[in-house]
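HUMAN: Quick job: go over this next protein and say how the chain folds.
***
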Amino acid sequence: MNPDHLPASLRAAIESAGYRVVRWAAAREVLSARVAKGRVAGDLGAFLQRWMPISPPVVSRDAFRLVFNLAAEHSWLCGGDFELVSAPPERGLLHLPALRSFWRNELRQEHFEALKRVVPPAWFMDHGKVPPGAVIHGLGITGFERLDRMNHDEWEAGEGVLSRKQPSGERIVAQYGRDDRGKVVLRSLEAAS
């Protein structure tokens, strides 16, 4: 797909993704600091101590790129200059139900929902007990020992994280920069080679 002929809604989503990823990286830095200082208590704190990547993403970039996988009018954020975009554990943190209120507060509801739509879901394969009658949100299974019942063409496991595979599609590289007021803006779009 020619980047000049993207549907208006898709182009708008790509334009705003740069700002949203910068906010995500900043919020992720806040989460790292809270966990390091022991400000996240209880089961969630213990879970994050175990599963959260140690180094927070770098936020202060004047120019960066993001890579989008385009498939049937939908865009998936699949790579770029921010490690959190492509790292399954970082995607798992964004989609972790126990962190919803944190992300909503740090990112604002609209940005959080938009990021969840473009960042492929991922789940930490924690083999702890799931309460009777409960299922793992988004997977519909009662525990990770039930992965054999899932379609393996749609999922991949690695680093203790289960990730949704992205459908094949064209890739677009978006280059972002900051304007004279420091606002993140889209500078260019081009087909990935």
User: Anything to note?
Assistant: The chain has six helices and seven strands. The longest strand covers residues 170-178.
